Amino acid sequence: MAGKEWRQARWEEPLVNEYQGRRGGYTIPHGWEDEELARIVGEPWDRLGGLSRGEAPQLPGLSEIELVRHYTRLAHMSYGVDNGPVPLGSCTMKYNPRVSEELASDPRVALLHPLQDEDTVQGLLEILWRLERWLAEITGMDRCSLQPPAGAAGELTGALMIRKYHLDRGEERDEMLVPDSAHGTNPASAAMAGFRVVKIPSNSRGTVDLEALRAALSERTAGIMLTNPNTLGLFEDEILEIARLVHDAGGLLYYDGANLNGIMGIVRPGDMGFDIVHLNVHKTFASPHGGGGPGAGVVCAKGALVDYLPRPLIERRGDRFYWDYSCERCIGRIRAFYGNIAPLLKAYVYIASLSGVGLREAALQATVNTNYFIALMRGVEGYELPYDPERPRKHEVVYSAKPLHRETGVTAGDVAKALLDRGLHAPTIYFPLIVDEALMIEFTDSETPENIEAYAEALREIAEQARRSPEEVKKAPRNTSVARVDEVYANHPRTVTPSYRVHALRAKGLLR
Ligand SMILES: Cc1ncc(COP(=O)(O)O)c(C=O)c1O
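That is the input. Now the predicted structure with pyridoxal-5'-phosphate docked in place:
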């Protein structure tokens, strides 16, 4: 249970590659040479003679029990949704139902190979065919490609589709509009697809500024990339007018579905006027993500845009399912084979177990959780709710720790570290960029009222501690497996991943 007395395990656990010299299910006593092994086992240890390599490969060498203990100790030092709340705004870190995990690891689907003959994988194709139809229904689109492996890949897919659509019509539209509240992957994907990104400012209500949008629209506009509810958790209530303006200018509307959890089963992007949608299947439909597994960024389209979806698409003739590779206008493939199947299977099970009514309830619960938290935060000093504080939020809320920073010098980053000390995962910080000292909090539908209360209480305590002794807050975290890290070292491309290469450099004294 989270709280002030919470402590995380601290094992002096080496990297797996630092374990050497053991094999399989048994262990060899230290110092025993190959001849001794050969004598006991009664076989020449090295049958390859001169062909064998001079040096042992640098593979980890652990016995089975050591391997189990290694990962169990690492698990003790880790934290995830199975430990406690992970209210990372924009990430939708919800509980991953075990039934989905179980079914997706069923050998009848888990052991299939993408090169198998279609006749031998009819069951899987039927599941994917059904999933595609459900996702089209949920988003208000006509067809979907299950290929893109993540949200950002979905965005790139959508941006490439928009580009090809305009080119096919002989129109040179090279500007993509992106609101300043957007996730960084939106402008990045648009730029990768060859567009010039035009930033649209938010108004004082935290939604798209219509005047600025009108001024930006021109015959160069290819489209707009929007998420609704936006990253502030606010519903873009002028979306129908936005759609009209963009369409009248000859542009298309792209929906970033990372925030669908706040509205699924209630309102559909297709009905709001969007032409292309990506879904973060790994968020909205409860597949593990982040360190937990691969993503799925399904892209759906309607009308003429369907022709531009990556191929192959799954089709049905009678009782038989097959991949259709015909591609007159499509953008081609976006990924090898058919996408990341495991998260798609988990999404299938999640949607089947909830049904349309359950999906709607999940969205309502996520919204209730956000607004319960906002109610608890009323009167907590040090944090302010920018942009229309009286307006209810949907799936998430973004506070600013600016007042606390001004008063005590304690930053949003320090608050996040102090939360870790109480056994609570940090929120997303410093995003969206339009909020100073941002704390972006999303409890999802999974979280309990008690944990939401504990989170608000922890934020109040941290603000009080910051006023009493800011330097103490700046020393957090102390109760975690790893204390405050050197942020440059932790983010530098050469050191960010404790890969074996980094380990080898460290062993040679070339890295600290
Ligand atoms: C609003 C928003 N859009 C897009 C993305 C990109 O999704 P992914 O991380 O799956 O590439 C994210 C990811 O956090 C997001 O929050």
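The mean pLDDT is 92.
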